[in-house]
Amino acid sequence: MHPRPSTFSIVARDPERDAVGVAVQSKFVSVGSVVPFASADAGAIATQSFANVAYGPDGLDYLREGHTATEVVEHLTEGDDEAPSRQVGVVGQDGSVAAFTGEECFDVADDIQGEHYTVQGNILENHETLEAMADAFESTDGGLPEKLLAALHAGNDAGGDKRGEQSAAMYIAKPDGGYDGGNDRWVDVRVDDHEHPIDELERVFKIYDITLLERETPDETRSLSGATAEAVLQTLAELGFYDGEPTSEFDDDAVEALESFRGMNNFENHSLVVLEDAIARGWDDADGTGEEKLVDAIWNGLSRLERL
Fold first, then answer.
1. Could you state, in chain order, the average pLDDT of each consecutive group of 10 residues for the chain (308 residues)?
2. Closest of 154, 167, 155, 150 to residue 108, by C-alpha
3. Domains identified in the chain, total number
4. How far apart are CA 14 and CA 18, in angstroms?
5. Parent domain of 281
6. What's this model's pTM, rounded to 2 decimal places?
7. Which end of the chain, N or C, is more open, meaning fewer C-beta atoms within 10 Å of its C-beta?
């Protein structure tokens, strides 16, 4: 018999962006290759416990045919002899939500549904894990990525996976959301094996967000100056992008160094003016040191702008 990953996940929809997605954590290597399925023209599905990965594509096909999430769950499980060992969550683009937890799933195993989302887990430390995930999704501001990540963090903090942590993933589909609008793969990040996979997933997502996701154009921008400019130049100097003596003035040489940093990290999705503005706004709230702090500052500064 295949191993049963101890897993908690959330499947959710953002009706304003037509986005649907899954976030998941498990004591199981590369959970992102097993649990999450999403398609902008159908919905999103998480298949877990003694996972039947056919539930993903088959369930999305049922959603495309016009079946509700409840009907999809029924279709998937009724002909499956191993259904008592399965767990699945479904959210359709039509707004329907449903889940199934087989009676043979290892405790604590359960699911909770709310408007636009379902959370489910098995081999959990406690039922509070699911309650915390639901509360976090409902109360967190921001877009669907922020709400999904908040749910994972809250579930883990409340007890999480009884066997521990290993991998995590977030997959969100949105019409024309993929690279250069060529497909619907809007957000697709995963951590296959890590001591703290949810923290690492968030770090990777921030880089992904800056690099690949577009934001609205700001009405006004700030320039770097004073102590923040000096600290940023010191960081750019330590990273080898700036040769001068760091000062409180962000002059032409400083802008050139920032341009080199932008190019090296593939951040051309944002103009230099917007990037400088983001650093100026986000520096004081950024975590880490060196390049990590620069990236976190950019992400924090961009977060005031709506994703497109």
1. 75 97 97 97 97 97 98 96 97 98 96 98 96 98 97 97 95 96 97 98 98 96 97 98 95 97 96 97 96 97 95
2. 155
3. 2
4. 6
5. 226-304
6. 0.95
7. N
